[in-house]
Amino acid sequence: MRRVVVVTDSTACLPKEMVRELGVRIVPLNFVFSDATYRDDPDLNMADFYEQLEKSSKTPITSPASPGTYLEIFREAGREVDGILCITVASRISGMYEGARVAQEMAAQEMPDREIRVMDSGTAAMAQGFVALAAARAAARGETIEKVCQAAEKVRDRVKLVAMVDTLRYLAKSGRFPRIASWGASLIGLKPILTLRQGQVRPVTAARSSRSGVRKMLKIMGKEVQGKGPIHASVIHGNVPEEADEFAEQARREIDCAELFVSHFTPVIGIYTGPGVLGLAFYSEG
User: Of the candidates 151, 125, 123, 109, which has an alpha carbon nearest to the alpha carbon of residue 6?
Assistant: First the structure.
C-alpha cells in the first residue's frame, strides 16, 4: 500500500497529466455566476467565461469546498494509504484551509490509524501547485508523511508567484484587496504586476505592454534564482495561450530550467484577475 496521498484544491492549477501521473486528489471550489453554480474546472469554455465576466455588472461569488467534501476525499484516500497531506490555497484569501481542518478533525475520529495533516500553502495558482507537486513526488517515491511534509515545506518557503493583469478592476471589485484599489487609480494605461506571498497580494511594478511585462517578470525571476541551483517554473495564463507559449519560450532561452511548463488559471482565480492575465510561478532548489 502506498504510504501517502496528496490532496490539494483546484486553485493549484495543476496540469491534468501531472495529477493523473502522481495520483493527486483535487478538491474543486465552486462559484455562482449569472444565478448558476459551477465547479472550478479549467475545462470550462474559458473564452465564454471571460466574455461573460467582462459583460457582467456583478462579481461572481466564490465559495470554498465544504468540510464534508474534504471528509469524503479523506475517507476514500484512507482506504489506500497510511497518511494524507492536504495542501490548501492561502488561508488569508480563502476558507479552504479552515474547511480542511474541520474535516481533518472529523476524519481523525473515524480513522484513528490514518495520519492526516493540513498545510496552508500561503499562495495560489502554480505556486501552490509546486508545493503540491513536491509533496506528491516525495509520496510517489514511497516517503513517510514526515518526509512528504518536509518536501512541501521546503518548496513553500521558496516558491514565488508574479502576475501581470490588464486591469486591477476585478481585484478591486472583489473587496478582498482594498489596498489594490487605491494603487490602481494611478495606473491608467499601464499593466500592473503583482506578487502573492503569505496570502497577501502586493504591487511590484507596472508595464506599458505585455512584452514589457514579460521582460519585467523574467527579470524578477532571474534576480531571485541566480546561482541557486536547479530552477522549476511554470507560466500561467488566463485564456491567452499564444502569449503564454511565447512567454515560456522566452523563459527557456534566458533561464536554464530543470522544469518549465505552461498551465492556466482556473475560473475561480480568473474572477479576481480578469481576462488576459499572465503569471509566472518559480522556485530554485538551492
Answer: 151
